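Data availability (excerpt). The following record was deposited with the supplementary files.
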Amino acid sequence: MTPHLRRAGTDDLDAIMAIEEATFPDDAWSRDSMERELAGEHGWYLVAVEGDAVIGYAGLLAPRGSGQADVQTIAVVPEARRGGLGRALMLALIGEARERRALEVFLEVRADNPGAQALYERLGFEQIAVRPRYYRGVVDALIMRLEVPAPRTLPATGRPS
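Predicted structure:
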């Protein structure tokens, strides 16, 4: 079965928190913080669903008119990794940032997570700074930025122009 993406809501909080706590045991968001994010006016969260199970999620903070967006969080269950789901979630976040007229998207990634760094670099993000000992006072955070690309259009034939 192929996973599909849909908007996340507070009904998804339990599933999201289970993934959050398993993926980020030392740095997981609190349940209250995640609930506020899901219900917030400026946030846009997605879940990846396979059957009845949430197998990933991602969130964007992008106030309309601000020109900037921040990837707040992204996680995929271990058994669904390396299949393109993280990329699909990120592309959806970038698309929403574009819809909200963001010119730049920012994110923070652990310096000890080369897989995530490589994904972000393939999507066009560039490292712009380091926050020393950001995660639990031990691991640096790499700050990355993407200049939001213009949307691509295809002719009716489906071949790139």
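Summary of structural features: Helices lie at 13-23, 31-39, 85-99, 114-122.
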